[in-house]
């Protein structure tokens, strides 16, 4: 092609009319310069050392020549093992970060060649000047190189820049094969591409998603020649070349048993096998079947599509999106075969990612962004083609076209300057600093360190296995193994505590106090025992929808004061697994039905919400709040419930009143003329200090002075009975003390309460002597409180208060 060539009219092509020019030395030099420039950007923004998450795992697994999480990544670990041991600069963690930068540069260079070859195939037999093709390809390479997700993976230890390089190489091989026609050289290119595809499968299993596009592309090309035996032989050779790199997966059983992390010994009878020498484990590991649960139709597919398209705009920018659309339209008219290859691959990858729900799903879109960047480069070509469609021989038009297309290179440069501050990892030493400070603390020998997040723990393993720092410690996290005892942070801590070794959290997780008692230990947090070590002050047997039971509660202070802080601790016991996460609430409601104090929160917070609670365990859910300045009339009901945090606030069962409290008050004074109570106590909860009595006609007025020996278990009812000489009840009064305004269950230890009781005697009361007795009972069960005398001896279930004669004065 020459600068003076007139663009061919738009038309669909299945095969090139002629064998296209090869990629020349100049093309490879520009590709190399592009890759080196990208590498220098990544090198100067490279993370300096050990990192969290998969990066930290790869950093020690590569150094040891071991295995990593599914699907194993044997090609990556083999190459990185050689890289980290042959390269002597820096520590192993930095070498692994550099490994990603190298592959990032290689990927950018390959994308340049891929775009250039795609333009040449699509523009055949006429089209654009060579310099314009190269400019469009350079735009593509730069656009991908500064895309945020790709750049972020090029400065840390990760597999995705190498994956992008292999994907670009596969596409480049297929399109180069097509460009060479039905020649023997073309088939050599195809065999090399088959081998690269096999390498891709040995690296990242998402390479499999390219297969539908490849099959359709090969089938529609229709450039096969030779007899059916020759074609069958070629197909067999191709399949062998694809399968050959898969033998690298044998490195997992060869190296796995020798890795120090193959078996995590917690106790002699507690061993976590991260490597299992079974065929079933091997198949599950390399296929990643454990991730199958993450593959499902999203509950809100439209939102997921919009989110994915939003990410695409963030990566490519709006001008890049527009150019990509132009490139797709241009391919539709110029080469539907190439549109089929790239378009079907794009849709397959995009669709898979929509259905795959994992935390780092955005990195799976890198091949999608790569394809779109190629389309954007084609859009630049189409833009130039349209400008030159009339007057291609006009020097002025050619100059303006060059200026317009060259100015497009300002876009990736602008994006580079905008994204540099956010993507620069050169000062990211947080993981190394955190763990160096942590390991410098006086942690007991053989302690177990726990995080709720695997990503936070992998740097410890790097320091242990690569630098031999504190190998006596064991780092654990949820899902370290597939058993239920490792299902979440609560079960992980329980499993660790069974070993008898000291257990520490590597960071504060206050919400775990619903399940455990903790102590600060020099910025670490030690698990010292379960949160529930005694029965609650107030027992309860309230069940919510047969899902969770409230076994009782504590309340401090026990009486409500205007504007005062109050704490209510709820003791929950799940009866079965709870889905989804629930919010619990405590409401203090006055006698008029007004809420005068409340607390709503998600018990267990982020670390141990209700969805993680295990049936049968006891949990202490503490609510703290401040009461209103105007409490209104007592008594105050304590209402408790659970609900799902939705706009409708769907309740689990019904909110229930679990007890009452009264208004804060001082102890009542004892009068001088008080008749002594003779030391009677009721169930070691309440003592009768004394009483006063007066008689007015057929009305008895008594003032009983009670004192709480401890917080009573229940809200008791006081009974006052008048008995005849035969012991029959001829008059009585039953009611809560103070008319229920200060329920006994809220009496703090030592409180003295004067309770006035009035009893009306019958009008026809026979002459005689009548006894007066008093006591308390639980209105729920009807059981009276046992009475003891001043020496602790049982004295029945009532207290004698004296007698009177009738008629008065007799």
Radius of gyration: 40 Å
Number of strands: 26
What percentage of the residues does DSSP assign to strands (E)? 15-25%
State the end-to-end CA separation. Answer: 136 Å
Structural class: alpha+beta
Number of helices: 20
Low-confidence stretches: 1-17
- Broad shape: elongated
**Helical content, roughly?**
25-40%
- The average pLDDT is 90
Largest sheet: 6 strands, antiparallel
Describe the protein's architecture and organization.
- The structure is a single chain.
- By secondary structure, this protein is an alpha+beta fold.
- Helices cover 39% and strands 20% of the residues.
- It contains 20 helices and 26 strands.
- Strands 17, 18, 19, 20, 23 and 25 form a 6-stranded antiparallel sheet that branches. It has a 5-stranded mixed sheet with strand order 4-3-5-7-6, sandwiched between helices. Strands 11, 12, 14, 15 and 16 form a 5-stranded antiparallel sheet that branches.
- Helix 2 (53-64) crosses helix 4, helix 13 runs parallel beside helix 15 and helix 14 packs antiparallel against helix 15.
- The longest helix has 34 residues, at 301-334.
- The protein is elongated, with a radius of gyration of 40 Å.
- The model is unreliable at 1-17 (pLDDT under 50).
